[in-house]
Amino acid sequence: MIDGQRRVLKLTLGALAELEQALECASLVALAERFEGGAFSARDVLALVAAGLHGGGLAPGEVDLAQAEFEGGPMAAARAGAELLARAFALPGEA
Description:
54% helix, single chain, mainly alpha, 4 helices
């Protein structure tokens, strides 16, 4: 829930490419390692959620994430991002 509305987050290949560029990661492996290792910032979480929103069908800028209220607070946003990445990198049948 973002700003009181249920939002769909999905990491399509295009959304992953957007995320790689936004976070200046050279590869999908580097992107996954960054989050798995816990070396991510609030900016990284915002970029991840933004990419997920775009992959889920929202136009860029449709939600001002810097001012948005995440149900459950910043940790809930980070958990949602972690789940989003896990699903994106899961083999079929694992997610």
